[in-house]
Amino acid sequence: MPSPDNQTDKVLQSLDGIGKLQAPDFFYTRLQARMEKELLNEPAPFLLLRPAFLSSCLALVLAFNIITLLINTKDTAAQNNGAAGIESFAREYNMNTATQLYE
Amino acid sequence: MTEQELISRLQKGDEQAYKLLVSLYQDKVFNTAVGLLQQHGDAEDIAQEVFIQVYRSVPQFKGAAALSTWIYRITVTKCLDHIRSKKRKKRFGFVMSIFGNNNQLVYEPADFHHPAVVLDKKEDAALLFKMIDGLPENQKTAFILNKLEDLGYREIAAIMQTTESAVDSLLQRARQNLKKSVSAKINNSS
Predict the structure, then answer these.
(1) Which CATH architecture fits B3-91+107-189?
(2) In the predicted model, is pLDDT for residue A11 greater than 80?
C-alpha cells in the first residue's frame, strides 16, 4: 500500500495532462432557441422611464417655465408704468395720492 | 478574419459572425464552466448565458482586452454568481428545514467525475475536485484556468484583472491548501 504522502501526490497529480471537454452537440441550436425565447419575450422598458419620454417631459417643463417668466416680466413692467402714470397725473393737478388714515 | 473584423461585424449585428464566435469559443467556455461548477447541466446553462451576455454587450465592447479574455471574464463571473446563488439557496433550505417549514432535503452533491480524466485516475481526480470546490473563489478560479484551460499567468491575470505575481501567489496558496486538505482526507480515511 502506498504511503499517505505518495497517495497525496498521486491525487494532486491526477489532473495533470487532462484533456479538454467539448461543448455538447447542437449547442448553437439550443443557444439560438433560448435567445429567441429570452430576447423576444424581454419586456419593453416602462414608458415613464424611457430616455426619450423623460427628455421631452423635461423640455416641456422648461418651456412652461420660460413662458411663465416672460409673461410675468411683461405684467410687472405694465403695472410699474401704470403707477408712474397716476403719480404724474396727481402732481400735475396738485393732488395728494398718499393715504392718511391716521391723521 | 481578424479579431477586429469579427468584433466590428458582431457590432453590426451580423448573425454569421455571431455563429463563428460561438463556434470559436463554445468549448473554452464550456470547459471552464464545467471545471468551476462541477456540473454538466449547469455548465451548459451558464455557457448559454455567457453567449447571450456577449450578444447583449458586444455593442459596448471597446476592445481594451482581447476578445478571449473578455469572454473568459464573463464566464468566470457568471459561474461564480451561480455558485454563490446555489450556496445561498442551500443555506436558506437548511434554515427552513431547522424551522420545519420545508421538508426538502439538503443534499450533498455526488462526487464529480470529469469526463476527460483517464479511468485509472478517476477516483483521485474526484477527490481533488471535491477539495478544489472548497478553495476560496479567487484561488479556485486561478487553479481551474491554469489546470483545465492551460492558460498562462499573463492571461489569467488579464481575466482576473490582477497582476501576474498575484496569480503566482494565488496558485501557490491553492496548491498548498489542496495538499493540506487532500492529505487530511487521506489520513482520516486510513
Answers:
(1) Orthogonal Bundle (1.10)
(2) yes
